[in-house]
Write a structure and sequence with these properties.
The chain is mainly alpha-helical and 208 residues long. The protein has 2 domains: 40 residues, no CATH class; 112 residues, no CATH class. Helix content is 39%, strand content 7%. It contains 6 helices and 5 strands; from the N terminus they run H-E-E-H-H-H-H-E-E-E-H. It has a 3-stranded antiparallel sheet, with helices on one face. Strands 1-2 form a two-stranded antiparallel ribbon. The protein is extended, with a radius of gyration of 23 Å. The relative contact order is 0.09.
Length: 208
Amino acid sequence: MKLIDRIATRWLQKRHLLDAPDNRSTGDGGDAGHARKPMPHFASRTAVKTLTSAGSAARWLSGKPVGDEGWEAFFPGEGADRVYRDSPSITLAPKFRLPSKASIFAAGSCFAREIEWALFHAGKPVLSWTPDFPSSGNDFHRYTTHAIINDFIFALEGGWSEENVVQAGKRFVDYSGHGGFDSREEAIAARRLVIEQHRTSSMRTCCS
């Protein structure tokens, strides 16, 4: 089985576990040892009926922003009132722990870049984008699982072509990647850097 097939198979297996009824749950905000509650499921008609009968709390806001003070757009009892009235209380319950020496490869959009940035500055080994990479983090942004998997396919099996780079207005884009560039050459160079980084990281991971 090819490496990209193994990666895809593992991802699908994890997705299957996450979709299993026993795992579709929400945390209670407590310690990891506390029981987790099953996530309720509602038929669409039930959800609409609940929304229309829940009163003002079902609306985020109904007023209009006042000047630059947008928080005055809500009224007492509305959803926004619960957040902007005071500092919201947020509880995080980590689902897993990473070994202190674990190497990290993050894939996704700006949230993945923030993870890379934080771990890089914490001295952790990051295999994907880092602030000292010779290309912008924007070049690594991906917004779907298909786009993420495509990068690994291009890196491990080939198939990417410079013909993917096309002119859009005054700039050049590759719709299999992300971002716009001032020249076709710049777009090609940036795309090849991303693909090569995926190849190097994949080979380092599977062969180390």
